[in-house]
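INTERNAL AUDIT FORM
Audit reference: QA-55
Scope: verify that the stored structure record matches its stored sequence.
Auditor: D.O.
Record contents follow.
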Amino acid sequence: MSLTKKARADMPESKCPADFDFFDEEVLNCPYEFYQQLQEQAPVYNLPGTNIFMVSRHSDVKQLLKDTTTFSNNFTHLLQGPEPAPEVTAIYQKAWQPVDTMITADPPRHKTYRTLVNKVFNAARVNAMEDYMREIAHELIDGFIERGECDFIREFTTPLPVYVIADQLGVPRDDLRDFKTWSDAFARRLSQLATPEEQIEDAENIVAFQYYFANMCEKRRKHPQDDMITDLVTTKIADPDTGVHRSLSMEELQSLLQQLMVAGNETTTSAITGGMLSLLQNPGQLKELQDKPGSIANAVEEILRMESPSAGMWRVVKKDCEIHGVHVPKDSLLMLRYHAANRDRALFQHPNDLDIGRKNAGDHIAFGQGIHFCPGAMLARKEMVVAFSALLSRLDNIQIDASQSDLAYWPNIVLRGLKGLHITFEKRVQA
């Protein structure tokens, strides 16, 4: 028996991936229905009108991350966009040109730089920073706690990781405003969504960053200090092409410093901000975390799963291949969607719900997998645990100030960060 017109109208509309425009700001803001449709109907999906294939299932993303022969990290050409304006190209030509070091390098070249950065981000160094991180977190809270309100991003989640990574690099505190401006420029460049005017502004800021750090590198060569820049300029590497031991070139230094700067603060800012928003939207979970601070480490893993501040990463297809029966031609682009994979129903029960006690929260791939696993993961986790421990021990009755918050996300394909979060609170009575 056929359905009546009214009955058909009352049925929920069935959707498919083609009903969504991934590049639309509304979809980027709230992509979860799109992700579910992808995982159920098109786990390898050719975004219409592009040579981009999006991979959304957790198991597939993990598997493809291991195949560095077929799927290359050498996506440097994507950073400039398809056709950079002559004005933008002219600005970049004033400084050092990009080279493939870590995130955009494949084996065996990748290993040279990754080994070096692993030494810079060694466990002993990160563990020794915990008390220092705690001091910074409490100093920041001291700056606004008496007011009972704050601009959470501007006054806490931005300065905390910026101070930490800048101090470790050796950047003076007086220069941190410029440091954040430069970091934002790199992040927006990654978005592939900047306007022509913004592209020019970003290029000027990135060149300013290069000259600043070139000067700092030369200072550290002459006067070494106990910081990461000194480690980078004084360490010898085996040349990836010749095997001859040498110092890093300025192009290599610029590339590594750029990656350390962006990875060291943008993603952590976004994770702490998004985590606080999720907790405020789930007051029962927030109260449980305040009552049981021993759960904070697991809650951080759940927040990383939910927020996935590195929402996805590019791979360049080096040869024709087939994934889930989908032909993927050579030179296509894969968008490995970490944000979708971390909401995969096949692995995470009720994936769109925050569950600070989730037993498999740590199965997320917010930091990637394999040889390109984020070298700053240990630092980010420690900063997040320190941040939430400090905040939840000192603030009570935390609320979102909707009149001053912008709970939309910046339009960015690769990075995911909230635009604005203003909170009110009371001072927590210490036991």
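Auditor finding: record pair retrieved intact. The longest strand covers residues 395-400.
Action required: none
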